[in-house]
Amino acid sequence: MPPFGMAGGLLPLQHEYSTKALIRNFGGDVVLENVELTQSGAAGVYAENGPMTLRKCRITANGTHGVFNSTPKFVVDARQVCWGDPSGPYHRTKNPNGSGNQVSDGVLFFPWAVDENGTVPTQVLVEGPARVSPGDSAEYAVSYFAGEPLEDAVLIAALPAAGEFVDATGGAIFWPERHEVYWRLGNVAGGEGSYSVRLRFAWGVPDGSSDNMLAFLAAANLPAGPDASEYLARDPRLITSETVLSEAELEAELAGNAELAALFGAAVEEGFLLPQAARVSTSRGESAIVVTLMHPERGALLFLSLAGGRVAGVRYERHAFRMYDSAGGMEWDWALDRFSSWGAWAEQPLAARAAGGSLSFARCFFNCVAPKLSLAV
User: Fold this and answer.
1) Rounded to whole angstroms, what are the CA distances from 304 to 290, 308, 356?
2) Do residues 78 and 106 lie in contact, with contact meaning Cβ atoms separated by under 8 Å?
3) Is 55 helix (H, G, I), strand (E, B) or coil?
4) Whole-angstrom Cα distance, residue 134 to residue 163?
5) What is the number of other CB atoms lying within 10 angstroms of the CB of residue 321?
6) Judging by DSSP bridges, how do beta strands 36-38 and 65-69 pair with one another?
7) For the chain, what percent of residues have pLDDT higher than 70?
8) What pLDDT is attached to residue 346?
9) Which stretch of 68-72, 85-89, 304-308, 358-362 has the lowest confidence by average pLDDT?
10) pLDDT higher for 226 or 290?
11) Which of 183, 263, 295, 343 is surrounded by the fewest CB atoms within 10 Å?
12) What is the DSSP letter of 39?
């Protein structure tokens, strides 16, 4: 059965005192185009057991909902509709900042028109759970609509402070220092796209605390918004492959590097166990050996790495972070609020390198990390 259609000129409908919707669909396949539904005492559209499509419509100032779908498995496609406010329709989780007529679940409303002339500009929308509990993981959708051709476009998601990045779809790149995820879209002729981001919220987040997840679209020809060039120019170090080493392969690596063998032997003697060793490659053409060890009784995790001829250890415990090599190391104990260093890493006044002089790896690392640890705690 072909869909019932209503298209053409403006059809304003007003039904101020009724407790019923202006348009009610019970099982039909209905298409509405260029229709104005306003000032109902209830909903502008009520849908039940049937799909609907609304295009270039104006749905404003209705009592309970602009569109109410009682059977969300039959989707109401209400994209490019004007909802009476440039912020779009209100939906408690998908668009909580929308000030236009409310929509229920089962209604597609992105992108929306921002005025009664049906203007649909470039837009970005973040969807996902608005309430999460410590210890939970949550997935968020970041969608964009390009109302015009975009040059060198980048989609950016600024993550909530309490949300730990887990993964994302579509070749996303995580920028740890900014706590952002971004996608390099290139030249976009128009249309829309969507990606997802998964976050984990750690235990210890204060009850009742609030935060935001924001998304932006940047492009060379967009007059407002973030500068896309810094996201395009950044060259992050990404792991491109990982190969687990067998016991014999690990023994061969230890035999070939005395410093790595010494740090590994000391860790085993201390009670650390070996879950895995792997060879990893990065997007910059680098290769490294990473040995992961754990101490069940202490709840400690230790990573030993061999990269570019340099061996280092990074150790995490319940109360402390430690980084070291065979020449020395440093530790920050946040339980005692105490920083310490030893050997070649021993604390010295932070100072710029003298002209013509040089800095050791330990001194360089200390100058970079120590102030940041002090500020972060």
Assistant:
1) 6, 13, 33
2) no
3) strand
4) 10
5) 15
6) unpaired
7) 87
8) 80
9) 358-362
10) 290
11) 343
12) -
Amino acid at site 165: F
Cα–Cα distance, 89 to 68 (Å, whole number)? 12
pLDDT tens string 15-38: 444 457 899 999 888 999 999 999
Structure tokens of 285? 């053409």
Contact criterion met (CB below 8 Å) for 126 and 90: no
Q: Which range scores top for mean pLDDT: 3-12, 103-112, 333-342?
A: 103-112
Give the residue carrying structure tokens 């920028």: 175
Q: Which residues pair with 23 in a beta bridge?
A: 45
Enumerate long-range contacts of 364-367, CB under 8 Å, 24 or more apart. Answer: 365/323, 365/330, 366/330, 366/341
What percent of the chain stands above pLDDT 90?
A: 63
Task: Specify whether the CB–CB gap between 47 and 54 falls below 8 A.
Answer: no
- Beta carbons within 8 Å of 93's beta carbon, 6+ residues apart: 127, 128, 129, 130
3-state secondary structure of 263: helix
Which amino acid type is present at position 36?
Answer: E
Q: d(Cα 104, Cα 66) in Å, to the nearest integer?
A: 9
Which pLDDT value is given to residue 78?
Answer: 97
- Whole-angstrom Cα distance, residue 266 to residue 322? 15
Of all helices (H) and strands (E), which one includes residue 267? helix 258-270
- pLDDT at position 335, please? 78
What is residue 124's predicted lDDT score, i.e. its pLDDT? 95
Confidence category of residue 348, pLDDT binned at 50, 70, 90: low
Dig out the tokens for 52 from the structure: 């609907």
Please say whether the beta carbons of 260 and 326 come within 8 A.
no
Query: Are the beta carbons of 66 and 87 closer than 8 angstroms?
Result: no
Measure Cα distances from 73 to 47, 80, 155, 301 in Å: 11, 21, 30, 47
Mean of pLDDT values over 205-222: 86
CA distances from 247 to 148, 258, 264, 273, 276 (A): 56, 17, 14, 13, 9
Q: Mean of the pLDDT values across residues 242-253?
A: 95
Query: In whole angstroms, how far apart are CA 52 and each of 5, 105, 106, 264?
Result: 10, 14, 11, 65
Are 160 and 181 spatial neighbours (Cβ–Cβ below 8 Å)? no
